[in-house]
Amino acid sequence: MKKLLMSVVLGLSLVSSLVYADDWKPYDKNGNVLRTDRDATGKNAVVSTARYEASKIGLDILENGGNAIDAAVGVGFALGVCEPQSSGIGGGGFMIVRFAKTGETKFIDFREIAPKGANPDMWDVDKKGEVISDDKEFGGKSIGVPGSVKGFLYVLEKYGNLDRKAVIQPAIDLANNGYRVSAIMNMDMKNQMNNILKYPATAKIYLKNGKPYNVGDLLKNPDLAKTMEKIVKDGEKAFYEGEVAEAIVKATVAAKGKMTLEDLKNYKIKISDPVKGTYRGYEIYTAAPPSSGGAHIIQILNILENYDMKNIPAGSARYYHLLSESMKMAFADRAKFMGDTDFIKIPLNGVINKEYAKTLKNKIVETKSQEYTEGDPWKYESNETTHYSIIDKEGNIVAVTFTVNGVFASGVVADGTGILLNNEMDDFDTGHDKANSIQEYKKPLSSMSPTIILKDGKPVASLGGLGAQKIITGITQVIIQMVDYDKDIQEAINFPRIHDAYGELTYEGRIDKNVIDQLQKMGHKVKNGGEWLEYPCIQGVTIKDGVLRGGADPRRDGKALGF
Prior knowledge:
Elements: E1 4-7, E2 13-14, E3 40-42, E4 45-49, H1 52-63, H2 68-82, E5 92-98, E6 105-110, H3 148-159, H4 164-177, E7 179-180, H5 183-191, H6 193-197, H7 200-206, E8 218-219, H8 222-234, H9 237-240, H10 242-254, H11 261-265, E9 270-272, E10 275-279, E11 282-286, H12 293-304, H13 317-337, H14 348-351, H15 354-361, E12 388-391, E13 397-403, E14 413-414, E15 419-420, E16 451-455, E17 458-466, H16 470-485, H17 489-494, E18 498-499, E19 504-507, H18 513-521, E20 525-528, E21 537-544, E22 547-552, E23 559-562
Parallel strand pairs: 1-4, 2-3, 19-20
Antiparallel strand pairs: 1-12, 3-22, 4-23, 5-6, 5-13, 6-9, 7-8, 10-11, 11-16, 12-13, 14-15, 16-17, 17-21, 18-19, 21-22
Helix pairs in contact: 1-2, 1-4, 2-3, 2-4, 4-8, 12-13, 12-15, 12-16, 13-18
Organism: Fusobacterium pseudoperiodonticum
EC number: 2.3.2.2, 3.4.19.13
GO biological process, one term: glutathione biosynthetic process
């Protein structure tokens, strides 16, 4: 039997038709977010993405002769339409592809780069090194050279079965016909309204008479549809040269940023090997630098592998304490060592070394929260050496995470194109001589972590998510729930999470109050992030006993579909 599996930051048994009608919504009649009815299983195919519309498009592509790569590209363009506040062709990302015939796994890096002339002095900072204005987060100085179009078209042309029109046309139709604004998107519009109002081309699309769209309103983007039609006709040149490129440069410069036509024309993707680790016999393939996410997911798992997690009650104070301490040590290393390996040398193999993880485990005190500085992974350095995901009928696997960075990104839409431009420059550190300091053509450090998991050489799961640094801790917790506690993908995604990077443990209010009280007695500084943390938003798929299962995060708008 054919088996097609897709999970989108990027898997109910359906046999011959979709269970869910085209009017499925992640909110009720009063505009409140619904936290149920997010997962799906299937005998032939499963798709899980951050929006129902994108999941449907991905599934349709697979049903109509497309392979995993075709579906991944189609979903990418679709998410840029219906989830524009988080992703789109004005941004960049990472992709992992594993080829069934050869067993080869490749990492495709289409992360944004700093434009020509970018340097640490482009932002005004105070004595503490903090940027005085919001130039680093919004406006032209926050915009990097986007890579999504080049990355998507490269893999489509090299590995896809279908042509550009077959894959991109559904997204064009979605942009022309419109989609319904969700409760989450309405909230994002309200939160970013002041920034959107600064740019008329952006406000024209994402505000209605100067106000956020209401939940359930129809939102169209015909300018973006026209841009995608140009890409269908002329390929990547339609984006990186000509009218669209000129509009991107004009909008960036008008918003006080730096970018040239040469920056766009000369943009290149990078092909390398993914970071690989293991956890209790499972092989973990995940994102390589300039993502720090993959390395630190493996690092945290390596630390926790030294504990008998399955006999530590999930959700207990000890469970969250060990997670928190492991997270803090990983983020201490991240802040010190990680960056773009085309510009600096980093101790990647040391960070993911299991012996190094044992030294970190030995620092943990079971009854006390501690602060940590970076370790010394250089001692363990050697020369040895992943949102949304898809597995097609041939066994090829694709895992993708891409973004425009912050909610509604730079706030800048290139007039006439419908393209919302990223604010990835915000991911650089301020100041000079840091691993992640800004340089022209350098890629900022990322936490995006598209991840593929194998067991005995066969795919068992693929997952990824959105949510900045919380991606790292979110994916790690989902993996632990699946491997150590035998939870299915939806149960693992739903399980209450924490996040602790630099000494503040943010927790979901669904965690038992007695557990939080115990953590405070251990010295943890805690913060209630609400019943459900808004981020990270994890989507994943699994294959177990021949059943394809997709899980989608109820923290935002995710939905899995199958047949």
